[in-house]
Specification:
Blueprint: H1 36-49, H2 53-71, H3 81-104, H4 108-122, H5 131-147, H6 156-167, H7 173-185
Length: 186
């Protein structure tokens, strides 16, 4: 594999060192901000160097899920940070559900590992809303829906339409639905 070691003026080109990554630049020559996917790759490399097996395997599985999502559909595409966050959220939910299933099945060791993987993924997710914050947002949405004429348990769809954009990525859907149901009935 031939690689160019010198730039156009005979100077060493950036990134010509073995193993160095080329610097990402925009068209007006400013450096780009690091994407979430790039952060995951960097953290994976750090975990491998530190020989942190749990962290590296978790990040590998997450990056594999991101790659799978990128090639899903008719053509390969690069995921935005929001889409990568959705994949990480989905992976964290899988870990949480698996931990619960292992705990119910009497496999405490596997449940602990799944919980630990979920905690690693949680560091990449935005902070979840507290119960009080979620209740306040849902209560406001219930008032808006009632003002628009929606009443009783049938108003759940209208309330969810108002709440979902406000809590996207900050609260799990099942948790939101439970609060909406409770406030509509009470």
């Amino acid at each position: 594999m031939a690689h160019r070691e010198f730039g156009p003026e005979g100077t060493k080109s950036p990134g010509s060192e073995i193993g160095a990554r080329p610097e990402h630049r925009t068209c007006d020559n400013r450096t780009m901000t690091t994407t979430l996917k790039a952060k995951l790759h960097d953290d994976l490399n750090a975990a491998i160097k530190e020989r942190d097996e749990l962290r590296s395997s978790t990040l590998r599985l997450t990056l594999a899920a991101i790659s799978k999502e990128e090639v899903a559909g008719k053509e390969k595409r690069e995921l935005s940070d929001d889409e990568v966050l959705k994949v990480i959220t989905k992976e964290a939910k899988k870990r949480r559900e698996a931990a619960e299933a292992f705990a119910q099945g009497g496999r405490a060791e596997s449940a602990e590992r799944e919980k630990a993987e979920g905690e690693i993924l949680a560091t990449y997710l935005p902070k979840q809303l507290s119960d009080d914050e979620l209740n306040a947002i849902v209560a406001q949405a219930v008032e808006e829906a009632r003002a628009a004429g929606a009443e009783g348990p049938r108003a759940m769809g209208a309330v969810m339409k108002i709440v979902n954009p406000k809590v996207a990525g900050l609260a799990e859907g099942g948790r939101v639905a439970a609060v909406v149901k409770k406030l509509l009935q009470g």
